[in-house]
Design a protein that fits this description.
With 130 residues, this protein is mainly α. It has one domain. Helix content is 74%, strand content 0%. Helix 2 runs antiparallel to helix 5 and helix 4 packs across helix 6. The relative contact order is 0.16. InterPro entries: DUF6973. This is DUF6973 domain-containing protein.
Amino acid sequence: MGLLQQFDMLSESEKLFVASNPYSAPVIRFSADEATQKTIQIFGHNGHNDMSDAFRHCYFAALLSRDLGYYDALDYLNAHERFPNNPREEKRMDMANNYVGADIGQTQRPNHELAELCLKAAQGGRLVHF
């Protein structure tokens, strides 16, 4: 899929963020792909509202926080959750996991260590899932 098609798939809030921060686009794309692949590697699937979903949000946020900075990561992640018809409880769950991940990302560790810290957060009850 080309960059224009990927941009068209973003929410309006995400488009505004990327347009204002164009350097972030490849970082966001790589981080999203990495988070999905690692989730499947660890959990065997990429679920919805389960522990794998909580982990993916945490790890994605950790990668963005490390690579874009804490505040830019949270700005994007909040934009990502701002779309019509996003169920309130799912949004709260995702944002809670994003904040845990953004905090973890401030440690500036390599990918495998960020993933390990997010997995420990999931197993230790710090992440929210249904």
